[in-house]
Structure formats: C-alpha cells, structure tokens
Amino acid sequence: MIIVLMGPPGAGKGTQAHKLSEELGIPALSTGDMFRSAIKGKTPVGQKVEQYVAQGDLVPDELVTAVVEERITQSDCADGFILDGFPRTVGQAETLDKMLKKYNLSLSSVISLNVDDETIVKRQGGRLLAPQSGRVYHKAFNPPKVEGKCDETGEDLIQRTDDQEEVVRHRLKVYHEQTAPVLHYYEEQGALVEVNGEQPVNEVFKSLVDIVRRSTAAA
Ligand code: ADP
Ligand code: AMP
Question: What are phi and psi of 156, to 5 degrees?
C-alpha cells in the first residue's frame, strides 16, 4: 500500500500521515522531517539543504529523490508507506513513477488535502512540533495533553523556524507555482482524490481511511 498525501504546507499532511501510519501499520515518510533531522545532525545532506529549508525554497530534485529512494528501499517499507511532502515538483513525480516501476510497485492512492491560504497561515502560526517523534500539534486546534510536551514521547515541543509568517507566505507561493502542477499530473493519470482539509482532524481522518480502504478493496 503506497499512499501519497499532497496539499499546501500546513494542510495537515503530517498530522494525518501519523494517524494513518498507526491505523495501517506502515511507516509515514516525511521528506521535511528527514531534512530537519539531517540539518540538526549536521550531515552532508543537512549542510546541502539547510539554506533551502530556512528560506522556504524547494530542495533540488536530485537530492530529494536520492533521499527518498534510500528510505523506501529499507525493510520497514516492505508492506507499504505513506509519503508526506513528496513529490513536490512534476520532475519528482516522474522520478517517483520510474522508481516504483524499477521495484515493481505502484501507487494505491494520491490524496490532496484542500485548504485555503488564510487557514494555512493561521495553522502554521500555532504549529508545535515534536522533533524526535515527528508528531505535530497546534496551540489552539490540536493541543498536546500536557502543555509544551509530546503526548507520545514527553519530549519538548518546538516552533519551526520556517513557520514565521513571511516564510509561510513564501512557501505558499512556492506551492502554487511548483507543486500545484503535480496535482494536474496525477489528475491526468486518474489517480487524484481530493479531500476537504478544512474539516476537524478526525473528520479528515475518517475521509482518508474511507478512501484508502476503497482503493485497497478495488485492487
Ligand atoms: P503539513 O504536514 O501539511 O505541513 P501539519 O500536519 O503540520 O501540516 O499541520 C499544520 C498545523 O495545523 C499543525 O499545527 C496541526 O496541528 C494543525 N492542523 C492539522 N490538521 C488540522 C485540522 N484539520 N484542523 C485544524 N488544525 C489542523
Ligand atoms: P515540510 O516539513 O514538508 O513543510 O518541508 C519543509 C521544507 O523541506 C520545505 O519548505 C523544503 O525546503 C524542504 N522539502 C521537503 N520536502 C521537499 C520536497 N519533496 N522537495 C523539495 N523540498 C522539500
């Protein structure tokens, strides 16, 4: 089962990817989390991507696709995986198709979470992240049980440096220019399903589980 979660930055991809991962027993892979952890660990990849991530620009395709191929060929992905934040350009989507073909795999569902730009800005202003577990919270919309701590690991929650309003607006611009065409790419393949991402977290989740169950029943 291979699921792609699409949608603008702050649409709720990470939130839903974690819930789906628990529900389906397959890992959620976030390229953003991979880059943040590489930057923190000062790895060669981290050093290459740091500026792009800080400024809200996309990391070059070759770097992203290499990281993804390395990750999806690990043993915990054998029963499937959820991609959160990848592909983000038509070039990445084409490379993903080739990669899957090479390993005799195919996409089960491509789901776009549709959320208005102003909702995005409000959501990202209050986003809190648990860097180790990758869990995402919101100060008002999805608060942790204990203020400032992750429900799962108890680690301290942080605010992402790229969640300042100026960078968020730039990331939205980048999304509309470079990532929105990927939706048309999947639409043309007849693979795209759209979900209203403005609903509460649990309502969005119900819609996603429904879509995923239907796609596996049809396969
Ligand atoms: P993405 O991975 O698409 O960038 P996140 O999952 O990190 O988005 O969500 C962005 C912010 O919005 C987080 O603070 C999260 O808690 C909050 N959020 C996610 N889904 C919803 C929702 N359906 N309603 C309200 N807030 C949400
Ligand atoms: P995210 O956590 O998905 O919001 O991603 C954070 C940042 O990581 C983005 O603003 C980009 O700089 C970079 N990034 C994550 N995924 C990709 C991707 N698929 N292609 C290019 N850059 C990416």
Answer: -70, 140
